[in-house]
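User: For documentation purposes, I need each entry recorded in a consistent format: the amino acid sequence on its own, followed directly by the corresponding structure tokens. There are two entries in this batch. Please keep commentary to a minimum and don't merge the entries.

Assistant: Recorded as requested. Entry 1:
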Amino acid sequence: MYYFIINPHSCTGKGLKIWHKVQKELDRRSVEYKSYLTTHAGHGSELAKHIFYENEGILKLIIVGGDGTVNEVVNGIPEVERIHIGYIPAGSSNDLGRSLRLSKDPIENLNRILNSTHIHLMDVGLAASPDKKLYNRFLVSSGLGYDASVCKEALRTPLKTFLNHIKLGKLTYILIALKQLFARPFMEGMISADGSTFKSYRKLLLVTSMIQKYEGGGMKMAPGADPNDGKLSICFVHGLSKLRVLAILPFLLIGKHTGFQGVETFDCQELTVKLVAPQVIHLDGECPGDFSVVTFTCLQNKVQLLQ
């Protein structure tokens, strides 16, 4: 039995169109399945929890949607060890699919899942605040500051809907990134990796913890990221003028930003960030609120993917 959670509104209705193709193929092949369509924000988590508690043993749970849908589902599963996850990308950014080198053809992805002969283990990130008001998993990335502001506006702007309609959805993140660069102030705070002494930074632009190589619709934030090494790939930018950041942005798109002064990259198992003022955070493009103290942790090989 396969359980499908579908976001029909993903990428301005693309999710539903892809699901119809997948459903037709499932019926043609007489595959036993149950399907659930999300109707509101957070519904993916609710459905995942329902499926988990209503069934026993190892479950095959297939997600049709974007990175945000995957994030909802993974955060709704009480014990990820009991779930074998399949993924059919249907979002506007699809950074998880891009990092995993998944096909753009939904039927090819379905066949890969149905014909899977082994489980691919993958790391999962955890972002937590001291009061546990934030305690969320992420599979792609989580960041504080600039990239989170871009994600937050992308979730709300009608521009994304328009650009998705004309198949230029990736431009959403680029245009908003240019706007947010000059609209938002820099941050100030301290950073500690793997229990090291906190180091203070001024003019912090962003602090990002990566599991995968890509975020923001294809920006290669962590070109050396390995989703199986038990490490977060950290990128943070500090001490630069906004014009200097603007000059570096094109290199960020192709993963050639790591050699610039003011761009710090390294791997660690745990990162704690303490900011002077609360800042918006994103997890796989979803923005649950503003926080001033966050610890990011990598949990090695926690997610089981049908490959």
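Entry 2:
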Amino acid sequence: QLNRGKVDVSIRLQAGEASVPGFEINEDVAQAINEAANQINRILDNPAHVNALDILRWPGVLSAPEQDFSSAREAALDLFRQTVEELTVVREREGERLRPLFEERLTQMKALVATVRGGMPELLKAQEEHLRERFQKAKVELDPERITQEMVMLAQKSDVAEELDRLDAHISEVTDTLKRDEAIGRRLDFLMQELNREANTLSSKSIDAGVTRAAVDLKVLIEQVREQVQNIE
């Protein structure tokens, strides 16, 4: 019933008065110890008195009959099964409570990705204008071929289409995973790692403060979901 995490169980059994076992005395061992003590006392000048408790402390003199704990074991297992069932119900209820939070964060992620994607053409156009202004201020002749080369290099450096595509794909995969009627915690954890990786790449390729802010906002949303994913089985 539990597919993720670890459960530690400790059982302490306290016997009642009626269940205290009787002890059996190994008379042969006790007799042998007593005879050995008497022999030593005859040798010593100042013999020590050996009482019954001294003999009882000797290994093998006392033994307890083997007890049957089968009923206690079954009772403990039944209680454990009941506890696991109750835990499962609580976790299912917790998962349903978290679902709206996940869906809200995923919607926000998709909106951020769409905003960055929609702004890329205008951003590249603005970068081209900025490049032209730099050439003009430096009083460099505007060579169309040079400008084209610079723009190609800039476009390659700032091309985040693949990252945006992968972000969309991972967000869709998370949405589909939430609909599964099975243990999804580990899969969600993996997808959060993938989303975070793409958000980091998006940030590193950013040539605009707006894209950088979007990448940071994405990472915040991903971290919020990732923290809650740890509570999902």
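Summary note for entry 2:
The mean pLDDT is 83.
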